[in-house]
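User: Structure please.
Assistant: Input sequence and predicted structure:
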Amino acid sequence: MDGDHRVVTGARVPDPAVALTSLLRGWWEAYPGTRPTQKALARRAGIDQATMSRYLNPGRPMAAPPRVVRVLHTELRADPARLEEALALAEAVHAARRVPRARGAVGEAVAGGEAVAGGEAVAGGNTAPVRGRAGVPAAVRVLGHLVLLAAAVWVGAWLRPLPPPGPSPFSSALPSPASAPAAQPSPGPSWPVVRLGDVLWEARTVQHLLNAHGHRVEVTGTVDAATVTAVQGFQSERGLDADGRVGPRTWPRLVVTVRAGDRGDAVTALQALLTNAGHPTAVTGSFTTDTEDVLRAFQSAHGMPATGIAEPPVWLAIVGSQQPRLHG
């Protein structure tokens, strides 16, 4: 990607996310009379103000889903002829974010602007078998070359003469196996400890999840005394140490498994975390197909099964992908 354009087989085309955000911004700025505030538009669309600001900011493009595009078209009294264009851009971004379902194919490759998957080339929406010389499928030819290469390497190693007995002149320069440092696996994400005074995404996430469990608190974005009391009540119900801090023992019980069709505070928390982790989705509290696609994209990018279901390990990965922590 180069700036706000993408290069596709040598041609430069506008990024649909930038084009859509610019179009929506134009509707807002061209509103006849006193323009509605972004807060009012967010309320009409059922999202938060920060998300609406991203939908209208070409400098940090975040493509609005078709549902929000229709709301903005109506509320901003935009030209009826532009609605179809805006919806096409929204669908283009939506389709680009989709994670392909698992296929029983040998593999995928991109060559000359055509996607090759399991012996089929996809170009312009059409599929056709990809065959090489003498009608042999491309995948079979590649596999044959690999087998021949492996056989050549094995024969070369077998024919190479053995070295003369005796110590290697380089043996003194090499560390012994006992002294060589063992490779340490990279640590995975860990649950943060959220306590009194913490702010922003940590506080909002804990408050939304408390509400999802029936421990009602106001979502203020700050862990205040009321939030600590609610955490203690939640911990007591589940036999945990009621210290009012949300740590590695409390988080797995506080997060809620959500999937397509679910609604409520837990979905709101998930959508906000995904957006903050660089996988934007509308924060509506309703687990739509758009949210499912975004979650699949996140799972795929982090080497997880793209199930589209937010279970505790998925929550942990998303929480571990948030921006730097802030404390009050």
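Residues 1-11, 101-134 have pLDDT under 50 and may be disordered.
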